[in-house]
Specification:
Radius of gyration: 20 Å
Structural class: mainly alpha
Number of strands: 0
Shape: elongated
Distance between the termini: 62 Å
Number of helices: 6
Number of domains: 1
Strand content: under 5%
Order of helices and strands: HHHHHH
């Protein structure tokens, strides 16, 4: 079978596959955000920095950062559509393999991104100490 004769997976099939995993993707993003926020607090507190002055400051900062993170999760969900779009454009010979790899790569990149904030804070703390 030549490349020209290969039949791409229907777009509806691709859409259904990606949408069936969207909830799992969003739950992983939410968990990564919570853990990254906790790590950021641990880094700041272990360096002797006060993240906020009182409990009201803590609540307002947490609500602000949580709202900002929800907006970023919305942007990540728009980027999530790239999986379907790229599949329709590339027409991989093995759609199941493409989907599994693309999903895993996108998920790992998406859950790694929130950890950049505590990593940057840790680098700043180490830079001041060292």
């Amino acid at each position: 079978m030549t490349d020209m004769a290969r039949e791409p997976a229907p777009l509806a099939d691709a859409w259904a596959w990606w949408e069936a995993r969207r909830l799992r993707y969003n739950l992983a993003l939410a968990a990564a955000g919570l853990v990254a926020y906790g790590l950021m607090l641990v880094v700041l507190l272990s360096a002797g920095k006060q993240p906020w002055v009182d409990w009201r400051g803590g609540v307002s900062m947490t609500l602000f950062l949580g709202t900002l993170y929800l907006l970023l999760m919305g942007a990540a969900n728009v980027c999530y559509l790239a999986g379907v779009a790229l599949e329709a454009w590339m027409r991989p010979a093995d759609p199941a393999r493409y989907r599994a790899r693309a999903y895993r790569l996108g998920l790992l990149g998406s859950i790694a991104l929130p950890f950049a904030v505590p990593a940057i804070n840790l680098a700043m703390v180490i830079g001041r100490v060292g």
